[in-house]
Amino acid sequence: MVLALFTLLVLQLLQFRFGYRLTADDAMFLQFIWQGWERVWAEAGAVAEFSGRIGHYAMTPLNALGALVAGSTAGRIILLLLYYAAPVLLSVYLGRLLAPGRWRVAAGFMVLVLLAVHPLAYEHMPPNAYPLQNTLPFLAVLLARLAILQWPGAHGFIRCLIYALTAGAMLVSEFVFMFATALMAVDHLCHSAWPRNGAQRTRILGLYVSPFRLLADSVVVLVALGVYLGYRWHYPSMYEGNDPSGILNPLRFFATALFHIDAGTVFHRLPGFDFAAVAAGAWLVAGVVALLTLLCASLLLRQLPLLSVRAATGVLLAGGILMFYMVAPLAATARQQQWCLEAGVCGYLDSRVAFLGFGALAYALLSLVLRAAPAQKQKPVVWVSAALLGLVAGVNYAANSVVGADMRHVVSPWGRAEAMACGAGQNAWLTDEQMSAIDPGERVSMHPQVDRRVFWLEYMNFVRRSGMCAGAAVDNPHTLNDGFYVGFTSWSSQAPGLLAGGWSAPETWGVWSNGQVSSLSLPLVKGVHDQVTALRVHFSPYFGPSVKEQAIDVLVDGKAVARWEFSQSTYEGGDCCWREIPLPPQRSGSPLTVSFAYQSLRQPGYPGEGGDVRELAIGLKSLVLLPSPHIIGVDDVE
């Protein structure tokens, strides 16, 4: 039995191992990592203060670590084992509460149900996104609750440590807080229904409770809630995802909550699913999964300690309420309602949390069904129930195989970038063809403001310097350079070497000029840039109260080659311009100096210009080195 359950777990784990770094946030966390842990801590503090959520001091480092570890197969296996440990431990915990005498059978059945209906999915859902954010805190809470259950008479100091661990984990995220409080509620409800031997009980609000346990849990909740609210009071949230205005529309609120719960299961994904896309080999394994699930279910159901009708009804009612409790905060936001009800994207982090309750619901439901069935019909009911669960498990495996194949394609750019980084050898300059081949379809999700080409270059440099090229020795450990493109974002390690003077500090989008003249120093390398005859620059002129017109004289090695003119009425608003700069056929050598002289500058102190003291003229975003001139007209606007 244990071997069969383990086999089913391994088969599902193998399907889940391909998808990683599936969200734009995962890519962003990786960017933090390659700038060092100091950047991770700085971002953690900034996001915590922006969102008013103290948990980001732990969440951001956990997410950064998860994004890093997910880059290797061994790392993903470790992440998946940690992830699956949570439903296993939860099933053990619930089994010990609901069926203390035969908890192993009850726990095994709940694990089997969770495996059967667990979908592989995108939608910001762990373990393929945010693999550690919920996993480690959930494990901490579960281990703490199991320790309290196992050693009720532990030394006072040990119990204080256990409760402190719970409180600390609850501060990581609202999901952990709700998960922990839900477990506390289940514990006290079960203790009221089935008192433990020798346990002291007091009647409060019609329920028998353990006064010390209730007091200890209440203190933990109040401490965690007090710290959370105190931080939120000190740093009011500016994050729109925290806006609960959607609760004013009860119908949308309840619909979103129910869809979020449903999205945690395979049933949400079956309508419209193309089963013709399932490979023949996947159908074969799906048949094995269905058969193993059927056999396990039939054995477990025949030994299952049935809950009483009253207890089973209570589990169904309490379980449903607690699952709704898990998804209610996000369902109350207008943004999640729009994503779910208009865009049809209902799965989210909370779906994976609420999903954990389906094992207990199935246990309670089967208890009711088997108790209602006459003795002579219980065996057929067991086999029908086992067959249905096996069918669901097989279909789930088949559906997951299609999603897994797509994920394998989506994440392939990571492997191509790593292969290029480790195989570049002495070639420190990468071509357009090489850079474009990494992610031609832009399948890897990134935030809109991210310069994708800079991202992949910096990722490859991170791979080279972090020791990830073991087994594929790097002949030249020096930094790789993009030979024909430079993005002037602050994420770029290549850009600062080109900014010769007259520039502000680079920002995430690009860099502002500062002063009357700004210059670029371009290292044109023999054998790499011999065919380069023009430069294409992407920039936006600055317009404001003190600047309505702009003229820019462009000089190459001190010689004027172009003059560009702009007016606020024509070019105001967002992404403005691409312009090309012809290079002289005979060049004195490297580096080449390209200068921009501005007719107008932003005037600090001018009414309406704010407190910025910089004399701005243009915001430079990128530079492309072209092998042949394709001059863009003066009025060409992107």
TrEMBL record:
> Could you tell me the superkingdom of the organism this chain comes from?
Bacteria
Transferase in keyword set? no
Protein name as annotated = Uncharacterized protein
What keywords tag this UniProt record?
A: Membrane, Transmembrane, Transmembrane helix
Q: Where are the transmembrane segments?
A: 77-98, 105-122, 160-185, 205-231, 276-301, 313-333, 353-373, 380-399
